[in-house]
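Protocol step 4 of 6: structure prediction from sequence.
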Amino acid sequence: MKDNLIGQEYGPLQGVRVMLTGVAFAGPFAARWLGDMGAEIIKIEIPGAGDTSRIGRRVGEAGVVPKWISLGRNMNSFEFNMNFDKAPDSKQVFEDLVKQCDIWINSVPNIGKHGATDELAFAANPKLVIVHVTGYGLPENGGDERLLGRPSVDPVAQAFSGLAAMQGMPDGPFLTANPILADIVTAHQAACGALAAYISAQHTGKGQVVDSSLYESAAYLMSYHWCSQLNGEGLYHRSGPLNQLWRPFGYYECRDGEWVAVGVWGLGIWQKFCDLMGVSVEDFPYMATCGQEDPDKVAQMDAIWQKYLDSHTAVEVEAAFMAAGMPTSKLNNAEDAYRHPHWQARGDFIKIKDVTSGDEFVDIATSPKFNGTPCTVYKGAPLLGQESERVMKDILGYDDDRIEALKESGSVAALLITK
């Protein structure tokens, strides 16, 4: 554990320092999650370029990119050239920096080909945890040579993993599971893997490499279903807004054209649902109807349920299910969630001040919540290279002459932000 030298101290990961190399989305989002929980994030950015999320649809007079405000929160930007072939002095900077870090999260493909290898990092810091986020995994753990090192993005990962095969209407096109689900679940698996390896390193004194791929993370989401499918239960297929195994379970349109989600599953919930529909469980047995084993019973209940939906608004259906103690929710969009009293009461939205414009932007608060070491978002996304000088002076201990030499050699940005 280290003192946070350039950021505030908060959260359960206070004192953990993370070096991040890579651009949107999975790698940086993994680091952002750790940063929300108190880790100090040093984001390495190519001098003069930075993260691709800095480029996008802009809003307001200042032309701010909201997605960068969110992705880059709690991060510290260090403009540093990690191509040792072009900037030989960068090798020593890299070694000095990894000595001061606990975790290195990388999503740059083949980053070691220009000198920043795992071996060099471990030689400098044997306790370092290195997390590589890739499309298809690292070669040392096996794989098809045609795929290893190949680029991937979220919809490609969803396709290769099989996740996309379960999205969409039965007779319509395949759909992407939004928002960029493969990227997000990979980010969380990478962050969890980083923390598990970090705990191990504290016990053993030895770091390790964590191999987190987009397709395997997406496939892990389906282990519950695939265990059934690959062991004789049958092939899962696209079922649109409904569940393939249980009903009613999914999204349903109501009288007013609004949609509601319900989840009828389990004997107790089935009894409550039958009571609400005015029928008996004896006439509509659980597995025959809810479990869809008897097509005639399913068709009869579908007709009863549809009649109920046709005569009630989404708010009325939600209220009736809630009163009966059954899972339900009206479908919310971002504006609905922002106005909802439950979200507001739990403090699920925060405002982040943009360093460029000074304007405040609404974002989702940190999650999960900790009652002993609360998390926070203490700063918005940084300007490119905003903390470069502080990283070199406060963390690496470089003096002005050393910094000037690195600027002249091209290892760090020639113009550093000092405010």
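Step 5 (inspection) to follow. The first helix runs from residue 26 to 36.
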